[in-house]
Amino acid sequence: xxxxxxxxxxxxxxxxxxxxxxxxxxxxxxxxxxxxxxxxxxxxxxxxxxxxxxxxxxxxxxxxxxxxxxxxxxxxxxxxxxxxxxxxxxxxxxxxxxxxxxxxxxxxxxxxxxxxxxxxxxxxxxxxxxxxxxxxxxxxxxxxxxxxxxxxxxxxx
Length: 157
Prior knowledge:
- The chain is mainly alpha-helical.
- It contains seven helices and three strands, in the order E-H-H-E-H-E-H-H-H-H.
- The protein starts with 21 loop residues before the first strand and ends in a 5-residue tail after the last helix.
């Protein structure tokens, strides 16, 4: 079921015409917490609180982000707030959905690149640094692309 209008930005999800058609993961951990936090920082507490209050009254909370993508892909909901890897995973498993990157003409959209760090005082610091250099290399990036890592990223979540 397609939404009744083109979604341009995240704030569109609180439009009353979308009542009971929007799904998002519970904002209790991981990327969903990061997204909620980013909106609080970008919009300020009053605007973010008002948005989430409106969204809470009209959207379903579906546990994990993967389930959101699966439910949108199955046609249970028109829209879901989730990650690109969850969408790719749903598509691989037959879901009928599309990725919409909101706010491209406004505030922009949240991007969360994968990170790596070195623990201070690590026992094998030299090898840890070699691993970090490899993980940050173009060769490692290409291997992930070749493995279609996004599509399988949520297989075990």
